[in-house]
Amino acid sequence: METLVIVAVIVLATGIGMRLIHLLNAQHDARIAAHHFSEALPRPPGLPDDTRRRAHRMDADR
After folding, report:
1. Where is this region: Disordered (predicted)?
2. Do 54 and 60 touch, CB atoms closer than 8 A?
3. How confident is the model over 5-25, as pLDDT tens digits?
C-alpha cells in the first residue's frame, strides 16, 4: 500500500512540476514577444533597408 502511495505522490509531483515549467515558459515567451529589440549596430550609410542574405544572392530566382 505504501508503494502505491509513493508512486502516486511521485506522479503527482512530476505533473505539477511539468505544469509549472510550462507556465514559466509561456510567461517567458510572452515577455520576449513584448520586448522590441533594436538593431545591434547602426547600419552604415548607403546600405539598403533589406540586408538579409536572400536579398543579396544572385541566384535567388532558381
Report:
1. 37-62
2. yes
3. 999 999 999 999 999 999 999
